[in-house]
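Before relying on records like the one below, remember that each one covers exactly one chain. Contacts with other chains, cofactors or solvent are not represented anywhere in the record.
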Amino acid sequence: MKNNNFASFKSNNDSENNRDEKLTSNISNTIPDKQQKLEQEIIENTPYLYVLIIEDGNDQRLIYLQDKEYDIGRRHDAKIILHDPAVSRHHATIVKEYNQEENIFFYKIFDGDFSKNSSTNGLIINNKKYQNKYLEHGDFVKFSNSAIARYFVIDKNSEIKNIFHIIDQDKPYKKDDIYNKQTLTNHSYHFNDKNLEKDNIVEYISKLTSFAELSPYPIIELNLEGKITYYNQAASLLFPNLVDENINHPILSNLLKAHHKIQGNLFVREVHYNNKIFEQYIHYLPDLKLIRSYLFDFTNRKKIEAQLKDSEAKYRAVVEQIVEGLFLFTAQDFIIIEANISATKILKYSLEELIGENIEKLLHTEKQNFIYNLEILKETKISFRQELQFKVKNSNPLDIELSISLINYQNKLVFCCVFRDISKRKKLENQLKYQAYHDGLTGLYKRNFFMNFLSKTLASAERKKNIVAIMFLDIDYFKEINDNYGHNIGDILLQQFSQRLKNALRESDCLARWGGDEFVALIPDITSSDDLIIIIDRIIESVNNPFLCDELTIKASTSIGVAIYPIHDENIDSLLKKADQALYITKKNGRNGYTIYRQP
């Protein structure tokens, strides 16, 4: 029974091993396939062709570079075989590198191979000896006097790429290759069995390796008699009627006339042909008696420029219509580069005065906080709002609310600042705030402000071990004055009484209207009882002087009650109650005096 179980276990284990081996095998086979497909997709999606044109004695080859590695030498098993005896067996190695971010390949060539074999002649590129080098468009590589190569990077989107279909990859020309091509001269070659001779092939390869022939842009030459002497493959593809129309073709029209008027030997013009827009560079070569013309298709660019101009016009229209001020200033040094009309109206500076100025110089307040917020914005890209004051030309600073964001403008990061005048709102806010804490008749603080200030003052006094006095005051016989002379005289008396109290107190003291004709004062930082008595005497003496109320002279006096923190109590309500009790005692004793609370 045990043996059967063991056999069953072994069978299951073998089955699992086989399954694992099969899975491993499938993965091993799948990974290269996936990798190969991925590499093929990358090759197909890359925007360029990488071409090596080789001349090896009498053998000319054109090779599309696609593989990861190419060994070059005189060996029969080398990927790129060179037959010249002066070439080393392991002469050079080309390796492909891929830049994933830009979807671009690079090819790098090394002298010798990776087994430390070096070439005898060395690796000569552009007449300079290298151990290794990244190949660049147009590089001339010399393996020996008879074995040379040119490297080209060709844009796949260019119509000129069709010229590379003339031969199979990595194969020399054969006599059954047929390709029809308009040459760079004034007549056409038709490659057939007759003219596919060795001399013609060499001539064609020589033409092919020239920059003009590989250029994706049309290049045309004509002599001063108006006859076309040269045009490249791009010209023949874009302008199929070029030879037939000759000097009458739109891209060549007026070139001979312009030759007699031009100052210098180069000028540029815009040409429209077949719904395309070309920028044409025309080079007059008097020594050669030729006119050479280069054309670049700017159709898409012109459309984009038109769209941008339209967008900019709309942007300008919106910016100039808005009532808010607008600044664009550089993220690097805060220099204003744009400002709208509203900005000039708000700040009373001209555009000339604003453009080129550092925005910091306009700040009247909150400068450090403003700069700090800008630095945070650069890091987080999150817009912010802030209230501050801008300087105004020949006027007082202005309250401003601004919103700032970071934008890309003309290919650089700038701050966009939209701001508006909030001075009226601030004035209203200040009025409301004043009314919330100040008595409308006397201008003194209200009870709510006094209670908040009292709480903070006692908390500070507790920490600093200071003495604070609270005193209640009222106008003696105020009801009788009101009844006899009317409320208008009573209000004037309250206003003048308030002003005399303020004048008698210190700047650090706090005075508030408690209600009716009753007032309350907070006297902090008392060092001795003498200090308090001096202040009280000053108040009584000031009030005893007659009041002139609307041409009516009124004699008045005041009664005062005082409680002292922390001597009489430390609780706010208790202190106020005891100060009120002291005031009551003053009134009971005949008024026109003061009473300092005493513990019963």
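The radius of gyration is 48 Å.
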